Amino acid sequence: MSLPNPADLIAQMATALTARLQARGIDTPRFIGIRTGGVWVAQALLEQLGQATELGTLDVSFYRDDFSQNGLHPQVRPSSLPFEIEGQHLVLIDDVLMSGRTVRAALNELFDYGRPASVTLVSLLDLDAAELPIRPDVVGATLSLAPDERVKLLGPTPLTLERQAIGAAASLQESTR
Amino acid sequence: MTPTDPKRPLQLNDQGQLRHFLSLDGLPRELLTEILDTADSFLEVGARAVKKVPLLRGKTVCNVFFENSTRTRTTFELAAQRLSADVITLNVSTSSTSKGETLFDTLRNLEAMAADMFVVRHADSGAAHYIAEHVSPEVAVINGGDGRHAHPTQGMLDMLTIRRHKGGFENLSVAIVGDILHSRVARSNMIALKTLGCRDIRVIGPKTLLPVGVEQYGVTVYTDLAKGLKDVDVVIMLRLQRERMQGGLLPSEGEFYRLFGLTTQRLALAKPDAIVMHPGPINRGVEIESAVADGAQSVILNQVTYGIAVRMAVLSMAMSGQAAQRQIEQESFQ
After folding, report:
1. What ipTM was reported for this prediction?
2. Given CB atoms, is B52 within the 8 Å cutoff of chain A?
């Protein structure tokens, strides 16, 4: 099975997102990408939408639920949200949705900034392996992988998807970061 | 049974990550940079409406202060609270008790409270190291200042201050001024600056307050303040530590101020955009003029803010390194 081209997915996601936001009467959404791949997807999506709006970035390292097993990510960077969260409609963007734990961490972090009016979840890929009740509202493609397979987004330009075989449990955790 | 290398530095785990934080001596540049980068991220947390992250939820941090401190103790408390840890602070008097006995008894009591981390300040050099050697292996020990030896979190918050205001270290001239002899801050700063690539480190003070052989830290010694301050980018003033002085090291505080006090006129010898730092508490009119301490070039209060972020970084990195070490030991055991 060959992997889809991210550029095609993003064009289709832009259409689906616009329709969804319109249907809900949201005219000034705030866009937030989850570092690192989610930020790349968000940038490509904003470009596709023709929006010059400021992009927020989240680094969820301080909110992960695996700190006591995996420790702190050594390349943690500050989150940057150059707008209010309180009362805003947010579009939260990630690259690959797998267990749902990253999104859980991102939601927790967002609520430390304020109470958003709504959060729409956008993901380039959904690997259909949720361990939490978290599903994307807008998704580029849903893939089912073999248990020892992972997909990684390479970027930022061009965006490409790469299939990776994994061996040990340790690298499994690493690839979901 | 454990893969622990006996020659591995006490404060690092088998992967070279921090597990205690005792001294900056021997820590590689990459690790110091990682502390500064992590602290930068925590600085952002301190600017939020909710200044708290859940990283150390369920962990207990115990501050054990055998020596008085306000700034270090409160910023360590705040740092641990902002990481969602539970925090207790014990102020233990050192008077008339011998080191080994007190430390050991206190240690046992603290272990009984199931603390995950000790932050220790002690008037004797080597106290934090001693505790790290004798504590249960899963407990992380952070040095909050030991005697004249080291004050590594102060050293790192000074480095964060310099990096945030000057962008880096390599092309800077940094002067450390005053009571070098009694200052663990000076020692930690000299080591950190050297490790981070600063090429012009100057120590300035009267001969009686300069330790013998201070040149071994890769610094240039000046006994004339005017000469030493010429064109520097950073001035780190130290507190005159009267309480540690025995005998006639100084004629008087007035004499010290006349020769080594940082006044507006003397600061003018440094670069126009030079920053002035001080670990606190400041003695106005003893080592620094009020106009300088409160002036536009002073970053003394910024240092306090950065101190919280640096302590959050060190607490979380040491806890993380301890967790990783347990993982390594478990896997090699299986």
Report:
1. 0.78
2. yes
* C-beta neighbour count of B251 within 10 angstroms: 12
Q: Do B53 and A75 touch (CB under 8 A)?
A: no
Which tens digit of pLDDT belongs to each residue from A74-115? 788 889 999 999 999 999 999 999 999 999 999 999 999 999
pTM comes to 0.88
Pick the CATH number of B152-302 from 3.40.50.1370, 3.40.47.10, 3.90.1140.10, 3.20.20.70: 3.40.50.1370
Of A68, A74, A78, the CB nearest to B44: A78
Partner A contacted by B47 (CB < 8 A): no
Q: At a CB cut-off of 8 Å and minimum separation 6, what does A19 contact?
A: none
Give rounded-to-5 percent helix, strand, coil for chain B. Answer: 45, 15, 40
The amino acid sitting at B320 is S
> Which is nearest to B81 in space by CA: B60, B65, B102?
B60
Q: Under CATH, which number does the domain A6-144 receive?
A: 3.40.50.2020
H helix runs in chain B, sequence order:
29-46, 71-82, 99-112, 127-134, 152-166, 184-195, 225-229, 253-260, 264-267, 290-293, 300-333
pLDDT in tens, A3-22: 999 999 999 999 999 999 99
Q: Is residue B2 predicted with pLDDT exceeding 60?
A: no
Under DSSP, is residue B144 helix (H, G, I), strand (E, B) or coil? strand
* More confident: A147 or B26: B26
Compute, in degrees rounded to 10, the torsion defined by CA atoms A26, A32, A38, A39: 120
Give dist(CA A57, CA A80) in Å, integer. 5
Q: What are the φ/ψ torsions at residue A17 (nearest 5 degrees)? A: -65, -45
Task: Pick A113's closest partner by Cβ from B43, B48, B316.
Answer: B48
pLDDT of residue A91: 98
Which CA distances in Å does A130 have to A82, A134, B42, B190? 30, 7, 30, 51
Give the C-alpha separation, B33 to B45, whole Å.
19
Dump strand ranges (E) for A30-148. 30-34, 55-58, 89-97, 118-126, 138-142
